Amino acid sequence: xxYAILGTGVVGRTIGARLLELGHEVVTGTRDPEATLARAxxxxxxxxxxxxxxxxxxxxxxxxxxxINATGGQVSIDALTAAEAAHLDGKIxxxxxxxxxxxxGFPPRLDPVDDDSLGELIQRTFPQLxxxxxxxxxxxxxxxxxxxxxxxxxxxxxxxxxxxxxxxHALLTSFGWPDRAIxxxxxxxxxxxxxxxxxxxxxxxxxxxxxxxxFHIQGA
Length: 220
Description:
Elements: E1 2-6, H1 10-21, E2 25-30, H2 33-37, H3 40-48, E3 53-56, H4 57-63, E4 66-69, H5 76-83, E5 92-95, E6 100-101, E7 109-110, H6 118-125, E8 130-134, H7 140-144, E9 155-159, H8 162-175, E10 182-186, H9 191-195, H10 198-208
Parallel strand pairs: 1-2, 1-4, 2-3, 4-5, 5-8, 9-10
Antiparallel strand pairs: 6-7, 8-9
């Protein structure tokens, strides 16, 4: 499978490394490839993962079979717009981003929030995409290696397309998530709830002094 990761920050690099480890092809999209290659942290990652291809958002979306949105939530729509609608048609987009607004300092606010979500905004703006929201409630190391947290803990799925969610479920399983840990919340509007976990997640990180934790949903 060829995955196109939109975004070259730590989340995109971590997911990309895991996909390569699993034998997938990875193409990474960025606004300015030359500027990205000039960043020391990306250059170091690229040296360790020479088969990963770096290109523009547009070309990454064209080349990728499945897309992963690992951009900052405030620029996700711009990144997908740059990718161009013709290259998004019918493709699964795994949205791991959160709409964190740092314009008023830390802790960030969510925008949109309450009666909307980034997942819904992406689906509404690009109806040709099959958006699945997942992995946005934990740090990126746990996303691709759930064994970092002891015991049972939960990853959520939100989306309208049952087949897309089935394929994303299989990818999560390949990352090490057991079936019992993958909780399908329903349609893309349920992304409001998972995105609104971020304020408590940030405060938990502050209280614990680290981000090596996750949420566990235990029913009766």
